[in-house]
Specification:
By secondary structure, this protein is α/β, with parallel strands linked by helices. It has helices at about 45-55, 75-80, 100-105, 120-130, 145-160, 175-190, 205-210, 230, 235-240, and strands at about 5-15, 20-30, 35-40, 60-65, 70, 85, 165-170, 195-200, 215-220, 220-225, 245-250, 255-259.
Length: about 260
């Protein structure tokens, strides 16, 4: 695990919505070089917490700092150069090519009245190549399947070239091979390229395989955070997901299945 200073820090963070406390008193540090998974049941507050960590919604209490500075103190453009967010929904109200859609990720790096440079286009095409869509640049984005559109959104995030990647269910709509390819890609971004990656995931076995730490939301504002091996234990998960789970082992690898 990375020993670098925290890139994103939350202290005494309370997150809630519609009178419900989703996460109370959260203390967490997220460092370059690591992958943190946010896990828990549907509706438990994973996406709301991620949006709060991204600075898109205010917490009920507590603080979030990015690179030692309160999120609210960052100019929007400066923050967008260093923090990227992949949301669940992608609305395409207007016709656009895949390449132009990915180039949106370059906008924080481009002057207000400037056009995309050759370097910006190269970065966008490289991002498409990393999600196996290099030949899709001229396609109209509204003609894509759900899985293809998800991969375009990931490419736009990659083109943003941010130090911190916040991902809300990044493998939604993806077939198994692309799920593995995508999670391997973000693990590589963290471990080999020094990014910090936070992702909401549903598949506990993917968390075991690709993540360094896990933040488990268990309801009524309660949470547990630690290494994947510390947090993902059968008794803890059975309580959190309201169904008994069994741990299996295959060599040195752990798996969870419904009991």
């Amino acid at each position: 695990m990375s020993a670098l200073p925290a890139l994103l820090s939350a202290r005494a963070l309370d997150v809630g919505v519609a009178g419900r406390m989703l996460c109370a008193g959260l203390d967490v540090d997220i460092r370059a070089g690591e992958v943190l998974a946010i896990v828990g049941r549907n509706g438990i507050g994973k996406s709301t917490l991620l949006a709060t960590l991204a600075g898109l919604r205010p917490p009920l209490a507590g603080t979030v700092q990015f690179d030692g500075r309160a999120l609210a103190g960052w100019p929007a453009r400066d923050l967008a150069r260093r923090r990227a967010l992949l949301q669940q929904a992608h609305d395409d109200h207007f016709a656009s090519t895949v390449l132009d859609t990915v180039l949106v990720g370059r906008h924080p790096h481009i002057g207000r009245w400037a056009d995309e440079s050759e370097q910006d286009i190269r970065i966008a095409l490289d991002a498409l190549a990393r999600v196996s869509l290099r030949s899709f640049g001229a396609r109209e984005v509204r003609t894509l399947s759900g899985g293809e559109r998800q991969r375009v959104a990931i490419a736009a995030l990659l083109a943003q070239d941010a130090a911190l990647c916040l991902l809300d269910e990044p493998v939604t709509h993806l077939d198994l091979d692309y799920q593995i390819e995508t999670l391997e890609l973000f693990a590589q971004l963290a471990h080999d390229e020094g990014r910090a990656v936070v992702m909401v995931l549903h598949d506990l076995n993917q968390v075991l395989r690709f993540c360094d730490r896990a933040l488990l939301l268990t309801g009524a504002g309660q949470w547990r955070c630690g290494t994947v091996d510390e947090v993902l234990q059968a008794d803890v998960l059975s309580h959190a997901f309201c169904h008994p789970l069994r741990e299996l082992r295959d060599g040195g690898r752990r798996y969870f299945v419904p009991a």
